[in-house]
Design goal:
globular, Thrombin, subunit H, four-stranded antiparallel beta sheet, 32 strands, single chain
């Protein structure tokens, strides 16, 4: 009987290690990433509530439901607390803080109790809610054909109203109302980013050669995601950090704390098994924290609290801040995801919505 030489075993192990590392390089991964995701577990889920129409979290233990011209406030068990009639195109937004309605050329904010906070007549044409965080509502719209942006508080006081240079793509106001960032696009499809203070003064504005997808406010500046880079800028307009990507960014989200989640399309030459998208998490300093390769192209991605949510067709993948896959939720024909809290998701489909509870996540 022959015995294998220990040296042969070492040579074989070395060759195997080189092959594994080579595959990791080809797939743009790392040993740490692979070991982390190998340790992840799929969590138990259950459907708590299912209703026709669209739903949104109301900011407490209840939900809004809008179906066939009726908006309702429901408790956690689905019991109707109150309901109001609306025309189909009147509802602009619903979520924590209440719901926003535009009808008969008037802008209305209703609170979670179904009470009218304010009504403003002849304010903006074709209004759209850009963000509603804390006590401040950032609105975009038109006056005599020109685009404007405005911040109002919950009482309906207009803090500022300023014209925008080009078409407003997105915007976000700080929860304190101290600043707001606006992204606009001109006729040549170039982006402009502007920072506005609480008095409506434009502190700075910058032109960008590429499309800015979205931006957010942090305690020490502004973070933004463009189609090829992540950006950190100071309140005086200086670029503090910039991270460029070889691959195109086609989805992005920015959390309240300035963390950024982006989806990129990987180039064929880098992959062994065809083109697959990749999710990348960056901190507010534009440093990559982790990446996760997907089998499908995501329809949407969202950052909320300690988790990242990735929607792919009929599935929601939930990843931790460390890049661990903690949940895989099969829901069928998903059109949008609203995060209620760590253990609860609200999923909108074509003509129905469901509340999903996630147990044992931690």
């Amino acid at each position: 009987m022959s015995r294998k030489n220990p040296a042969d075993k070492m040579v074989f192990s070395g060759i195997l290690l080189v092959m594994v590392l080579g595959m990791m390089i080809i797939m743009d991964s790392t040993p740490i990433d692979l070991s982390k995701n190998a340790l992840s577990k799929t969590q138990e889920i259950r459907e708590v509530l299912s209703l026709p129409g669209k739903m949104a979290w109301a900011g407490d233990d209840g939900f809004f439901n809008f179906d066939r011209g009726i908006i309702r406030k429901l408790d956690g068990g689905g019991r109707v607390i109150w309901e109001k009639g609306l025309e189909g195109d009147d509802l602009l937004w619903m979520g924590p803080g209440g719901f926003v309605v535009h009808r008969d050329n008037s802008l209305e904010l209703w609170n979670e109790a179904g009470e009218l906070n304010f009504k403003k007549d002849n304010f903006l044409e074709e209004p759209a809610v850009l963000s509603f965080e804390g006590d401040f509502l950032l609105i975009g719209g038109k006056i005599k054909g020109r685009e404007y942006a405005s911040v109002l508080n919950k009482k309906g006081v207009v803090l500022w109203l300023i014209p925008a240079e080009g078409r407003i793509i997105s915007g976000r106001a700080a929860k304190t109302g101290s600043h707001a960032v606006l992204i606009t696009m001109d006729d040549t499809l170039k982006s402009k980013m502007a920072l506005v203070n609480a008095e409506g003064d434009v502190l700075w504005k910058k032109d960008w050669p590429v499309m800015i997808l979205l931006a957010g406010i942090t305690p020490d500046g502004v973070v933004a995601v463009a189609e090829d880079r992540a950006i950190k800028a100071s309140f005086d307009g200086g670029t503090l950090r910039e991270r460029r990507f070889e691959d195109a960014i086609f989805r992005a989200d920015i959390g309240q704390d300035g963390y950024m989640l982006v989806a990129v399309r990987k180039k064929e030459a880098k992959l062994a098994f065809g083109q697959r998208p990749e999710i990348i998490m960056l901190d507010p300093e534009c440093r990559v924290k982790w990446s996760y390769v997907l089998e499908k192209q995501p329809q949407s991605i969202k950052l909320h609290g300690e988790f990242a949510y990735v929607v792919c067709d009929d599935e929601v993948l939930v990843l931790s801040r460390e890049g661990l896959l903690t949940s895989s939720i099969k829901a069928g024909n998903i059109k949008g995801v609203n995060v209620v809290d760590t253990y609860c998701l609200l999923i909108n489909h074509d003509d129905a919505s469901s509340v999903i509870a996630i147990s044992g996540r931690r």
